[in-house]
Design brief:
alpha+beta, four-stranded mixed β-sheet, 4 strands, 69 residues
């Protein structure tokens, strides 16, 4: 496996949640920096007994509602 892809969203309280799109890996962080660290830690724990992917990609999904009247 070459790459893990996580989809991250910013929560209403300002923190972030991330979910891997191909494996059952979920994590969160209060800041973007903390989320990045937690994604790496969660992936390392998930792959503790097998070979790890070469890279991790975190895709931030931003949902914005615009007024269009």
């Amino acid at each position: 496996m070459g790459e893990l892809v996580f989809e991250a969203v910013q929560e209403a309280d300002g923190g972030y949640c991330a979910e891997c799109l191909t494996e059952n890996i979920f994590t969160q962080g209060d800041t973007w920096a903390e989320l990045r660290t937690n994604v790496v830690d969660a992936a390392a724990a998930f792959f503790f007994d097998r070979s790890r992917p070469e890279r991790i990609r975190i895709h931030l999904v931003k949902d914005e509602v615009l007024s269009f009247a």
